[in-house]
Specification:
Largest interface: A-B, 62 and 52 residues
Strand content of chain B: under 5%
Order of helices and strands of chain A: EHEEHEEHEHEHHEHEE
Number of helices of chain A: 7
Largest sheet of chain B: none
Shape of chain B: globular
Number of helices of chain B: 10
Helix content of chain B: 55-70%
Number of strands of chain A: 10
Oligomer: heterodimer
Shape of chain A: globular
Mean pLDDT of chain A: 95
Chain lengths: 219, 284
């Protein structure tokens, strides 16, 4: 079995938002919609303050809240763990949006472009009305993964089969791969480093892991 | 008090979504109260019809909100786990049974009441299953939303039936429902203290003052006066109707607040901050 997952090394992320831009470029999302974004989080009080940049998006959960609530079956989970949306089934009720513990889903109205109601030349070229007025979210660039696999490539290793945000990361903070494969890059990272998942108490079993320190006993 | 980063207010469910919970809850509550408690009241069938109309209005509000209204029938596709799908089915059953009752089949009274109660339960479960909103997913939100719907139903029943001069014994037992709603709200609010965002709690507190004062104490007092027999008939009817309007109005205001003002996201729990200055860990 395969379970695609993403790993973000919080020690390496510099908050440059290159992944955000790469995602936006790869998926042509409307203004205000960022499937991949990076949170800038500060905790503590002066002078004892810590700061972290936290890549965020759909966590492709084991038990996705969005799948359970979706009244149309538009949101589904594949056997490889990727959560998808059928834009032709979705009615845009946004129940999944308010149910998602990661604020990872969006719905945008028709005719909303970067500079008002008229699209730029590039927006007009890339506009997909099927993705308006319905729920959208990060797909782990599923088309790249599937087409890469068809070509015999390995997601997480070969850029052509790897999500755009991972390819773009200037600090190599993001990694993608199969956590069911003990030899995969993500499995190795998780084995060598201490990690957590966000909002685990929500019970969704997110497929996005955050590294925060190396394991002291790791070789 | 819980204050995670980025506990943003959701803005996707606005007055239209609130309208579904307000109208649907009140309409279903009115149908339950009338069919179970007061089918002997003059004009009871039309009161049930008013309840059904409210449920329909609530569903129309949802239809206004969805992005792809022409695909609305897809809402029935996920009965296996979605409470929104189940709500839609419950609404269909409620309309089928209720319309028969309105058209003169009295044996449908209890089934209609049960269907209305199921519809109300489905609505409350819709909120309960939204894992991202602490104010919705708190364990007591489900009974509170149901109780609010029933209380609104009682309020509307008073408002409509007061003028039909129903007997006091029909009115006084119902006064327990707004009291129960107020008491449950207090417990629910305490439960939320560690779950919801401070901004959501402030919104709920502002609304709660109205719910407890104008929605509990005042209407129960008015209903008791109206049913006491001390007042002239038109004045008693007006007192009951005003009590009903207060119960229903504060219930609607509570749901509006819950859906649109207190629906802050749970935020992000970051249990660890990164330890800086470590060796290169990416495996390339």
């Amino acid at each position: 079995m395969t379970r695609w997952a993403m790993v973000a090394d919080l020690r390496r992320c510099v908050g440059c938002q290159t992944c955000t831009a790469a995602c936006k470029h790869a998926n042509a999302t409307p203004p205000g919609v960022q499937w991949r974004r990076v949170l800038d989080i500060e905790v503590g009080e002066f002078p004892d303050v810590q700061r972290a940049f936290v890549p965020m998006g759909c966590q492709h959960c084991d038990e996705p809240a969005c799948v359970a609530v979706c009244p149309t079956t538009a949101t589904r989970k594949r056997t490889d763990g990727i959560v998808t949306i059928d834009y032709d089934l979705c009615i845009g009720c946004t129940y999944c949006v308010v149910a998602c513990p990661y604020q990872a889903r969006f719905k945008t109205p028709l005719g909303q472009f970067a500079y008002g109601d008229q699209p730029t030349e590039n927006e007009a070229f890339r506009e997909d009305e099927a993705r308006r007025e319905v729920a959208t979210k990060c797909t782990f660039c599923v088309e790249r993964i599937d087409s890469g696999l068809d070509k015999g490539l390995k997601p997480g290793v070969h850029p052509e089969a790897t999500p755009a945000c991972v390819n773009a990361c200037i600090a190599e903070a993001l990694a993608f791969g199969d956590i069911e494969d003990p030899d995969s890059n993500v499995s190795q990272l998780l084995a060598r480093n201490q990690h957590f998942r966000i909002n685990e108490e929500a019970g969704t079993g997110p497929g996005f892991f955050y590294l925060w320190d190396r394991k002291r006993d790791a070789t | 008090m819980n204050a995670n980063p980025l506990q943003r207010l959701q803005t996707y469910w606005d007055w239209r979504a609130a309208g579904n919970f307000i109208c649907g809850g009140a309409g279903a509550g009115l149908a339950v109260v009338t069919t179970v408690h007061a089918m002997d009241t003059p004009g009871a069938r039309w009161i049930v019809a008013a309840g059904l109309a409210l449920v329909g209005l609530g569903l129309f509000c949802v239809w206004l909100e969805i992005g792809r209204p022409l695909r609305a029938l897809n809402v029935f596709l996920h009965l296996r786990s979605s409470w929104m799908s189940r709500e839609a089915v419950a609404a269909v059953v409620l309309f089928l049974l209720g319309s028969g009752l309105v058209l003169g089949m009295p044996w449908r009274a209890w089934p209609t009441g049960i269907a209305a109660l199921v519809f109300l339960y489905c609505q409350a479960r819709i909120l309960r299953e939204a894992r991202a909103i602490p104010a919705w997913r708190a364990p007591l939100t489900l009974p509170l939303v149901m109780l609010t719907g029933l209380a609104e139903g009682i309020g509307l029943f008073w408002l409509l039936a007061a003028w039909l001069r129903p007997e006091a014994f029909l009115m006084l037992p119902l006064a327990g429902m707004p009291i129960a709603r107020g008491a449950l709200w207090l417990v629910w609010r305490r439960q939320l203290e560690r779950r919801a965002s401070p901004v959501a709690l402030r919104a709920l507190d502002r609304n709660g003052r109205w719910l407890l004062g104008a929605g509990t104490v005042a209407p129960v007092t008015l209903a008791a006066l109206g049913a006491s027999g001390w007042l002239a008939s038109p004045v008693a009817a007006a007192a009951l109707a005003l009590a009903g309007a207060l119960v229903a109005g504060t219930g609607a205001a509570f749901k509006f607040c819950l859906i649109t003002r207190a629906s802050h996201h749970l935020g992000y729990s970051i249990p660890r901050m990164p330890v800086r200055g470590v060796v290169h860990t990416a495996s390339h």
